[in-house]
Sequence to fold (366 residues):
Amino acid sequence: MPRAAHQCEARAMTVIEVSGLRKAYGGRAVVDGVSFTVEKGEIFGILGPNGAGKTTTVECVEGLRTPDAGTVRVAGLDPVADHDRLTRVLGAQLQESELQPKITVREALELYAACYPAPADWRELAARLGLTDKLRSRFDKLSGGQKQRLFIALALIGNPRVVVLDELTTGLDPRARRHTWELIEEVRASGVTVLLVTHLMEEAQRLCDRVAVINAGRLVALDTPEGLIARAAHTTVISFSPSPSLGAAELSRLPGVASIREKDGRVVVEGTDETVDAVVPLLALHRVTGHHLRISDATLDDAFLDLTSAGTAAAGTGTGAAEGTAAAGTGTGTAEGTAAAGTGTTRRAGTTAGTGAASAADKETQ
Fold:
């Protein structure tokens, strides 16, 4: 079903409601007044720089952290007070989790399926996630990507109404990543609500109906991916190698120009559609040939950087907490293809709300 249709249907019920959420560690607020709602059947993304407060926010939704202020409700349940009931309706795939080293994939799937009154068919999940030929393999013999796929299966095995996926495709190769995206779209089509935390902008742009951007503990934007892209300082990038050279002063007078830079003889102009319309006539006027001219649209990467750049400097002065070591990569979609890069952070939590899988617990600094 198209994304727009899901959005219309979703408006009938709010499944996750976060209002005025605040959480501090050592007197320092890492989540400061965050509010948002997630509707039934929606894939809702959470983006933000490292240390922005994403993980703490999601852990409050999962019932792994107790808010200092504000309210959180998931399917009408308080994640802390109603935690046992919550585990029946919410599945979670943490960013970093562990199982007993000698347990096999089949044993893990059967064990987790036994914890639910009406579990999904674990054989079907294994097949959809490419784990059928690994059913007899021990957990400690799996690759990082295979472990990731196993934890996704464990998050879904209870037939949850809500599933939280943190760095969904970290460690997966491009083919496995796209198959996983297709699986999540199928899960959503079945009526499951998905809360997705990711640093991979291509993933958010492909999957999410709406995206919340958190920076320095505050919600700085909430919109569709398309709506966020429209907020970018520029919406179009034009690049070419001029022969002969063309002065920046001439280009700066074009309508809608946001920036101009030159590297290795190649000129890159960021602007709007008006800028594109004006570039070719300008080159013709000055008898300049624009070799290898490329025109690309702004991406979610561009919007993300615009929305978080101001807060990043502040985070460097002590407002950002350690949330891993990932750098959100940038990418530019061009007429010849789309390149979007992103890397995951290191998630640290206690116990998953939905699957019960043990995660590497340590001191919470997020």
Observations:
- The longest strand covers residues 14-25.
- Residues 300-319 form the longest helix (20 residues).
